[in-house]
């Protein structure tokens, strides 16, 4: 009986075409492993020019990426802070936090140190830029003690200060500001007087008509003043006191007429004809005697005041 001898790699009864296909597949596989020319290439040609920007291609993603200036608008710099060592640093932080946290939530602080002591200034970061701006407006000039008066600035202001020109520029002429009828109360049909009341531990201030039956409220505001209020001699203006100075209010809606910078002001006096005023800041903790009035500031009001009928300095009516 004749026996059939099989060649190596051949399958008995296999289709010759199938064997050829397998050989081709093996050949292609070997070529792929060796980096054959049939493998697709993803490289750009030498003369390719990429004219699609990242913003056009990934605009939705790039607009949400963190920016270098994120959060800087919420940072303030407090200068003239006491220089302390490690043993007193925690106490200093508590004092600073108590003073500045009333303007908003403080999320971070940094006290630079040198030679084992703080450098005398600190960085405070608030939860929002609005809180930082409130801190600058209200805490700049805050007197911590006799040796330390805070100077508070926005961190972003430093670029502005560094680019101030050495040449003086003539300020632009401001347009005329109509202050309205500052003596409207003299035209009141029933000739009623006005008076002010501060209540709720000084948090609220109200202005009333002194009616025969019951007082009639005209205006009421929260935190209108930090200490007390005072009428000008002829009753034209209401002066409110603030840490950074005096504000004058007038007109039917008691709009702010003018502000005068005077750090720590506590006393004010007007000239009889309301053409000027003086203010003083007594030494903290002492009775306001003549020897304690330092400094005294004088301001001219002639540009905004006009002759009025004589009024009581403490009671307008």
UniProtKB/TrEMBL annotation:
<keyword id="KW-0396">Initiation factor</keyword>
<keyword id="KW-0694">RNA-binding</keyword>
<keyword id="KW-0963">Cytoplasm</keyword>
<protein>
    <submittedName>
        <fullName>Eukaryotic translation initiation factor 3 subunit B</fullName>
    </submittedName>
</protein>
<dbReference type="InterPro" id="IPR034363">
    <property type="entry name" value="eIF3B_RRM"/>
</dbReference>
<dbReference type="InterPro" id="IPR036322">
    <property type="entry name" value="WD40_repeat_dom_sf"/>
</dbReference>
<feature type="domain" description="RRM">
    <location>
        <begin position="74"/>
        <end position="157"/>
    </location>
</feature>
<dbReference type="InterPro" id="IPR012677">
    <property type="entry name" value="Nucleotide-bd_a/b_plait_sf"/>
</dbReference>
<keyword id="KW-0648">Protein biosynthesis</keyword>
<feature type="region of interest" description="Disordered">
    <location>
        <begin position="1"/>
        <end position="50"/>
    </location>
</feature>
<dbReference type="GO" id="GO:0031369">
    <property type="term" value="F:translation initiation factor binding"/>
</dbReference>
<dbReference type="GO" id="GO:0003723">
    <property type="term" value="F:RNA binding"/>
</dbReference>
<dbReference type="InterPro" id="IPR035979">
    <property type="entry name" value="RBD_domain_sf"/>
</dbReference>
<dbReference type="GO" id="GO:0003743">
    <property type="term" value="F:translation initiation factor activity"/>
</dbReference>
<dbReference type="Pfam" id="PF00076">
    <property type="entry name" value="RRM_1"/>
</dbReference>
<dbReference type="InterPro" id="IPR000504">
    <property type="entry name" value="RRM_dom"/>
</dbReference>
<dbReference type="InterPro" id="IPR011400">
    <property type="entry name" value="EIF3B"/>
</dbReference>
<dbReference type="GO" id="GO:0005852">
    <property type="term" value="C:eukaryotic translation initiation factor 3 complex"/>
</dbReference>
């Amino acid at each position: 009986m004749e026996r059939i001898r099989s060649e190596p790699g051949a399958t008995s009864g296999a289709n010759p075409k199938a064997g050829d296909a397998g050989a081709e597949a093996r050949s292609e596989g070997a070529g792929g492993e060796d980096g054959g020319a049939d493998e697709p290439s993803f490289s750009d040609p030498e003369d390719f020019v990429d004219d699609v920007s990242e913003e056009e291609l990934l605009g939705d993603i790039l607009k949400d990426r963190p920016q270098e200036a994120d959060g800087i608008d919420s940072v303030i710099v407090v200068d003239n802070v006491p220089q302390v060592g490690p043993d007193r640093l925690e106490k200093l932080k508590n004092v600073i936090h108590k003073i500045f946290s009333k303007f908003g939530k403080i999320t971070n602080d940094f006290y630079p140190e040198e030679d084992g002591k703080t450098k005398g200034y600190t960085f405070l970061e608030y939860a929002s830029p609005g809180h930082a701006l409130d801190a600058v407006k209200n805490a700049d000039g805050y007197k911590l003690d006799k040796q330390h008066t805070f100077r508070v600035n926005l961190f972003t202001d430093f670029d502005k200060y560094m680019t101030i020109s050495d040449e003086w520029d003539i300020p632009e002429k401001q347009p005329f500001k109509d202050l309205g009828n500052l003596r409207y109360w003299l035209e009141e049909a029933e000739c009623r007087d006005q008076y002010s009341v501060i209540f709720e531990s000084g948090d609220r201030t109200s202005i009333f008509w002194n009616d025969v039956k019951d007082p009639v409220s005209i205006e009421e505001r929260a935190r209108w003043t930090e200490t007390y209020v005072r009428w000008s001699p002829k009753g034209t203006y209401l002066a409110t006191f603030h840490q950074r100075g005096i504000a004058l209010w007038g007109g039917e809606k008691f709009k702010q007429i003018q502000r005068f910078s005077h750090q720590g002001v506590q006393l004010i006096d007007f000239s009889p004809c309301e053409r000027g005023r003086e203010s003083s800041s007594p030494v903290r903790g002492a009775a306001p005697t003549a020897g304690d009035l330092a400094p005294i500031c004088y301001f001219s009001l002639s540009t905004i005041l006009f002759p009025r009928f004589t009024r009581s300095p403490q009671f307008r009516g």
